Amino acid sequence: MDVILDLADEHVFNxxxxxxxxxxxxxxxxxxxxLPSWSECLSLANSSSPPRPIAAIAQNVYSALWASNLxxxxxxxxxxxxxxxxLYVLTYLGALIMYFAFATPSYxxxxxxxxxxxxxxxxxxxxxxxxxxxKALPNIAVMTVPWLLAAAAAAAxxxxxxxxxxxxxxxxxxxxxxxxEPFLDGWGYVAVSIIGFLLFTDMGIxxxxxxxxxxxxxxxxxx
Length: 223
Fold this sequence. Notes:
The chain has 223 residues and is mainly alpha-helical. It has helices spanning 2-18, 28-34, 38-45, 51-67, 80-109, 125-159, 162-171, 177-180, 186-212, 215-221.
């Protein structure tokens, strides 16, 4: 996801953000850094006169929020607010395009039109299903963004130390290290990731689905 985000920033988002109005924004990263540590919080809780320290902490956090003079049109690419907003747009538009790109040909080429003759088939059911999907996509994007943000942050953090870490991990396999190391990075890692993903989705989720059809659960979970 970090690669997609970088490409989107380079070709689209940099120009979009620079054209936005100069609306001031709080610097959440600086505000979090201004918060007291856990040990300081404990000492503050045990203090006999906490109001003044709390007021000082609040002032420090508030000052840190606005000290960097961030604005909507000048957000750097590594700003978490910009990343969240960009990832939400990418996720929502990606889901929207994927939905219509696959659902439309599936409806005309795969869907059995005889289902429309079923007595329980609702009037305008296809239209209702499309409307329900459109209403669900924004919420799905909101729930997906934190995972994509974490993945992008993890990828950026791992990139700097990937080579040394991969060599150290490969060394644990002893004489097999030369065979293992190519699959810890680069295209070898991509191939292993694809296989692992398919095993999880096609095999793991299948068995979860079969488990949900167990007689003890089926009647309670299915209408």
